Model the fold of this input.
Amino acid sequence: MQNLPADYEKTPSGPPLLETTVFARILSHDPELALTSLLFDDGELRLPMVDLPVGSSVVVKIDARDVSIALSRPMDVSITNRLPGAIDEIEFLTPPYVRATFSLGKTRLHSLITRESVGRLALVPGLKAWAMIKAVAISGRGVRPDRAPRPRSWPSDRNSSRETP
Done:
């Protein structure tokens, strides 16, 4: 193994534990679906509803084992969080594991996949792909408000009417 990321931890018997930490802000709650929407630097994430008010800053931990890769836009899948990006790095770990790191923009997201998947999908750095996140978990610690993105505000001087002023 070479140049393992700082968040790499080898388990005694099983896949390595890798996670991505994302700073986010709660955008909304949907009680009917029991889901919470979060805003982070490169988009939105939806996860099971959390008991924090809208606007709260949170830390999201995304386990690399919960991140799948698709080469085309995923449509008919049960995975809610689908984010476009590019493969930034491929690192071969202890067989059969490979860490594929996505660049989503500002965010680098780890995915733990097998060597077989790398070969079958012909994954290489620079390849455009989709990250699909099955589940995200919010840690118990808060974030300084300046670390989490804020939704863009609408200009207050905009005329919402289609009529000429």
User: Anything to note?
Assistant: The longest strand covers residues 19-30. The CA atoms of residues 30 and 57 lie 18 Å apart. The mean pLDDT is 85. The beta strands are 19-30, 35-40, 43-48, 57-63, 67-70, 81-92, 97-103, 108-114, 128-133, 137-138.
